[in-house]
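Appendix B: a complete holo record

For completeness, this appendix reproduces one full record from the ligand-bound portion of the collection. The bound molecule is magnesium ion. The inputs are the chain sequence and the ligand SMILES; the output is the full three-dimensional arrangement of the complex, encoded as C-alpha cells. No fields have been trimmed.
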Amino acid sequence: MSQPCMLVVDDETGVRESIRLIFGKDFRLCEAKSGEEALRRTRDEQPEIILLDILMPGGNGLDTLKQIKALHPAGQVIMLTALNTARTAFTAKESGAFDYVTKPFDVDELRLRVSRALERTQLSSELERLKEEVARKYGIENIVGKSKAMLDIYKVVALVAARKSTVLITGESGTGKELIARAIHYNSDRCAKPFVVINCAALPDTLIESELFGYEKGAFTNAHQRKVGHFELAHGGTLFLDEIGELGMGTQAKFLRAVEMETFTRLGGTEEIKVDVRVIAASNRDLEKLAGSGGFRRDLFYRLNVVSLQLPPLRERREDILLLLDHFLKLKAKESAVAPRILAPEVIDCVMSHPWPGNVRELENLVERLTILSPHETVTLADLPEGMRFRDQTVSLKEKVLQGSSPLSDAVDEFEREMILKALQKTGFNQTKAASLLGTSRRVLRYRMEKLQITESDQDPQDTKLSG
Ligand SMILES: Nc1ncnc2c1ncn2[C@@H]1O[C@H](COP(=O)(O)OP(=O)(O)OP(=O)(O)O)[C@@H](O)[C@H]1O
Ligand SMILES: [Mg+2]
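The structure of the chain with magnesium ion bound, as generated:
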C-alpha cells in the first residue's frame, strides 16, 4: 500500500511543525491554515487522516468538519482542541469526527489515536471493496448468456428486483437458480441487507423449522440457548429457500403463514416477531404438478408463484455454450493464476454437442478441471473425460443429423469407420480375419477402408505394442 496521507489543519505554525516531526516518516503530510484551504486540500488529496483544529480564525472548526465529512466521508477526522473546549469536542464526535485530542498533546496518545483512525479507514475501505465485489459478482452483467430465453430472464430480474414480490425460480440442477436469486437481491434496494439461504433438502423437516423460525431456550431438550432463525436473520433483506419442493407439509403451512403475515413466533416462544423479508424460492421440481398430486400445498404454490422464472437447460440454449466456455476459461485461469487454456477445434465440437445434463455447473466444473489438470496449454480430445469423448462423437453426429446440419450418410460412415477400426485392431490389422469378423469379404472391406480413408497408421499405438 502506498503511504497514507494526513492533512493537518491548524493556524499555529508550531502545531504543524510538531505534527510533521511526529508523523513525517509514516505519512505523506499536507497542511492547511484555514477552513477554506482545508476543504480544497481535502478535495485534492483525499487524505486518510485529517487533524483539525477546532478553533480557527475566520471559521468554526465544527462547520469545517461537517463540510469535510460531506466532501470525503471516508477520511477520518481527529479534532485538536484546547482543554477548556472538551464539551465542543464531544459535539465534534457527534458531528462525525472519529476522535479528539486535547492540546498540548501527548505524543504517544496522539500516535495511538491516529493509528486507530487509520485502521478504521483501512477496514472501511476493505469493507467497501468487498461490498462492491459482491455486488459486481452478482450484477446482471455478470450472468453469461445471450440466448432469447436468458434475455427474457434478465428483463424479469430487472423488473422484479425493485419490488418485494415473491419469486419462484424453477429449472434443472445447475441452471443458475441461486445465481439469479442473488442477482435479484443485489439489484434491489435490499442489497445492503442480508441474503440468507436455507436449503430445504439438506436438513430433516424438524430441523428446518427451527432453522427457519429459531427457538427459545428450553423449547426442547437440547435448546440450551435461544436461537435466532433464518427468517429473523433475513430482516430487511432476502430469504432464499432452495429446494422448496422438499419442505414437509407441516412446515409448509407454518411457512405460508409467516410469509403472508410477516410475523411468526420462535419455537417454544409466545412473542410475535415482525419481520420485513423478501422471499425467493427455488426448486428443480415442477411444483404445480407436485401440488396436483398432493405433494405440495396448492395455496403455498400460488403464494410463491407471484412471479415465476423458468431457467432453461443448457441444451436448449446451445448458443450460450461458447460464451459460457469463454467466461469460465478466463475465470478459472484467473483463479488459479495461469494462462487461459486453449481448446482444440474438435474439443469445441465435443463441448457444443454434449447434452450437459448437469447444465452450467457441469460446464464450469469441466473447465476448472481442464485448467488445473491439463498438462498442455492447448486442450485436446484426450484431455476430456472418457465418457464425454465417446458418447459425444456419436451423439454429436446424431444430433447434427437430426438438426439437419449433417446428412445421414455421415453418421453411417462414422459408425462403419468405428466398427472397421475396432475389428482391425482386434485382429492385429489382419484384413482377412477382420473381414470375417465383420461378416464381409476382404475385397469389400478393402473398398470400404479406402473410401473411409482407414490406413494402418490408424492403428492404436498402444495396441501395436501389445500385439507386437
Ligand atoms: N448464466 C450463467 N452465467 C455465469 N455463471 C453461471 C450461469 N448460470 C450458472 N452459473 C454458475 O454455475 C454454477 C451453478 O449455478 P447455481 O448454483 O446458481 O445453480 P442451481 O440452479 O442453483 O443448481 P442446483 O439446483 O444444483 O442447486 C454456479 O457456480 C454459477 O455461478
Ligand atoms: Mg442451487
